Amino acid sequence: MEWEVVVVDNNSSDQTRAIADYFCLQNPHFVYLFEPQQGLSYARNAGIRKARGEIIAFTDDDDIVEPDWVWRMNSVLQSGKCIGAGGRIIAVWPKPLPRWLCTDDPDTMGAFGELNLSAEPGPLARPPYGGNMAFRREAFAKYGGFRVDLGRSGTNLQGREDVEFANRLLAAGERLWYEPRAIVRAAVPASRMEAGYVMRWWYWYGRSEVAELGPPAATRSVQGVPLYLFHRLVRWSLQWMISLKPATRFSCRRKVWYITGTIVACYQGRRSRRVPGSAIADHAAQHSVQTPPQAGNPR
């Protein structure tokens, strides 16, 4: 099986270029690419354009893939039963877990990129995560790339570009597959094991959700914000204050930050729509990567 690793340097200021150049000199399978436009979606779309294979797999710079990861993803996508696949992501903790962190709660673990759906492979009815996913090139040629108005850029935690792309495929009737034996281990920095980080993550998740799907439907709203969101904000704030168990308090607090992010996004979205001369961007044009299908083995 032929393969290549495309390292996309998204305007970094550290030693990424020097380290990548070293690997490129040692091994012709490594390719370095500089993408000056800041943003994860810009970087991924640039990598798609550079990649030469018919299968394109994604992982993150802080993840460690198992030795058979490429083979597993290739086997699934070469079978012809799906256009995309996602694998298992296991969080690797640098220190003992705090009392408020419940690893059995999938909502909490979403902030750490962990995905562990089942021990058995099978059809995937939900999006995989960006740290462990792969698609046939035809998926990008047919449906475009990742939306550049989503995805992390700089220090913000906006996301859902991976979720949006997979949902686009599912909505079009395409099939995705879950392969739990394609394992990626996500190293969690100690700084992310603080409650403040998780709160920020959920705040940006609320904002990202509105950016992707638009504001929630509502019969009554105030300044573009559905009225029921204020009711939920008060409810979970009170629940947070009166709960005694650390895990319960944390769950309530997480909901407060998520709702706050949703409210902010709804309000800011209404204000931007009121600016004279503003227009809603054509997302199909934004995330187009213009990649014609190419023959060859997976890359």
Short description:
By secondary structure, this protein is α+β, with helices and mostly antiparallel strands. The chain has helices at residues 16-26, 40-50, 69-78, 106-109, 137-143, 161-171, 195-213, 227-242, 246-273, 283-286; strands at residues 5-9, 30-34, 55-58, 63-65, 84-92, 122-123, 133-136, 176-187, 221-222, 225-226. 40% of the residues lie in helices and 16% in strands.
Number of strands: 10
Helix content: 40-55%
- Name the CATH architecture of the largest domain: Alpha-Beta Complex
CATH homologous superfamily (4th level) name of the largest domain: Spore Coat Polysaccharide Biosynthesis Protein SpsA, Chain A
| CA-based gyration radius | 20 Å
Unreliable runs: 275-286, 291-299
Q: List SSEs in N-to-C order.
A: EHEHEEHEHEEHHEHEEHHH
- CATH names the topology of the largest domain as Spore Coat Polysaccharide Biosynthesis Protein SpsA, Chain A
Key descriptive features of the protein:
6-stranded mixed sheet; Spore Coat Polysaccharide Biosynthesis Protein SpsA, Chain A; 299 residues; 2 domains; two-stranded parallel ribbon; alpha+beta; 10 strands; disordered C terminus
